[in-house]
Amino acid sequence: MSRRNRGAAGTTFVNNVRGPTSALTSFLNERGIRRANPAPAPVPAPAPSRSPSQDGDQAEEEEEEPAVSQPTRTARLTRGRSSAAATAGSSAATSRSESIDVTGVNENEDEDDSDSDDDKVNLVPISVSVRTTRVTRTRAASTAKASKAAASSSASASKKRPRKKGESDDSNDEDFHDITGFVPRTKFSHKGRMPQGSNKIEFCSRCRARFTIKAGTTPAVDDDDGGLLCPTCTGSSSAGAVAPAAKPIKRPRRKAQKAEIESQVPSLQDLCIQKIANCIEDVEAFGDISDISMDKICKIISRNRSLNTETLQLFLDPRHSDLSLHDCTEITAEGLKSIAQFCPLLRSLKLKLCGRINDDVLNYYADHLSRLSSLSLIGPILLTDKAYAKLFETVGDRLERFELKSSSRFSIDSLKALCTHCPKVTHLRLGDCNLMDDDWLTPIAGLANLRSLRIRNPEPDRLTTASMVSLIQAVGSGLEELELKGCTTLEDAVLVEAIRPSCVRLERLNMMDCEYFTTEGVETLFKDWTTNRGLSYVNLENCVMLKDEALMALTAHSGGTLEDLNIKGMDEVTKEALLTLSRCENLLRLNASWCRAMDDEVMEVLVKAAPRLEKVTVWGDHRLTECCPIRKGMKVVGREGDYIDLRFI
Question: pTM of this prediction?
Fold first, then answer.
């Protein structure tokens, strides 16, 4: 039983003990909200009769009492029962004042902690006199109005929504929800939400405020700067003018292209090759298969790093004359030596990533491969000049093709041995040789039968323009292919003074990463170049200084013979120059990546003009949309928004 006994209305007791109250009770008390239908208050005990003289004395005592503010008295009454306070307020409105004895009230009675049972039984009520003032009457009236409003709202809530089984009283208290700003979850139903992707967030051009453009509406436009205006700046009359809803644009391109790619069922041969490559460890022999199929299997297992000394035996056949191994990283020196043991009739040998080949293996090739005429070594980091010299001396005039890449030990002595003992070399390809300089070009100039010359990625500032001009003037009359990839220091003199007058039989020209070639130099090379019948392959990738005149001169000269063109990175080229690609009627492959002027119109003209076009690479060409025309069987790689399957690139 609580120590605070609130049995009588308008009274309180001496043993007031404060206890914990809920947050809801405190909140309702602060807002002046009471129960809608409070229980009837018990009738107060009749006060003892007093004489008129005593009443007068009591009135004088009240007047002479020290000034105690009305809020203080009201606070004392508030600590009593709320219903008693309401009853006292209503009774105060009917009677002017009540004569109640307040003598003997101790202000420190709230701190009395007596726990005896006698105090609980023999409780002495202390009555408090309430002097009715205008403030008291106003507060009493507001309290009564709040009680009536709470009662009416509770009754309406009970009528609107019946209480569910097992539901608490707080769930029906809609007044509490309205006061705290709580919104029911039902107002956020799925039907009331806006569909995702239908709205846009913009900023007002006047007030810079952020506002939402709803689907199907057209925002107002500022007449001064052409920016969008928010509804506040526009005004309520013209804000949010509803425009006719546009039909969604159907874009079946992605699904159609995906279906087209997935519909390309691989052939039975490709499926068998894939199966064999995946189970290469369990294959004992290939049997009678073509060289093309064997090369496909070799590429697949090289990509998977499954080509090792054991699986190498599957590709060694005494009848083979050509052998290409695309990844020799896992093949030991003994495995490489077995190539000459099992394939003594080899004419062409190509070893990629052959970092384990050494002098003993190369000497073994020189002694046992009696028909070797083409040798390609990529990454032979262990071979020395002595092994190269012995190979060139042994092979002699039989050697026609020699390719060497990524070697730091191949020196000018080895190159001189090559040019001296193998004068019939027709294809010479040297790339990523760290020791290459101008002195290397002098021995190469003595190869009179040279038809293909590739010099790739020399060390910076090692090759000069003057030495390159002398080399091309010496061997250019027989060259059909010239590659100067990565020769960043070469200038226009190589084009004007060497290639134009000498390379009359040239068909393939690679000037990739030659940054110092200018538009004037390229235009001079191709303009009125009547001694040359036309080029079939041109690579101008990353020649960033070239402009429209260079491309126009190229298409005017080689438009009828050009089959493969690479203009990647030529950002200065405009749409007018790209439209001249319509002259290339025999074009098969085009790389126009990062040519910003490439758009749907250029692609349409190109597709109509080049019926044999197979592949177009357009990375970074943001003006080319998915609506551009494409011929069946033609690949467009790098277009934004396309579904691309790397298996078919």
Answer: 0.60
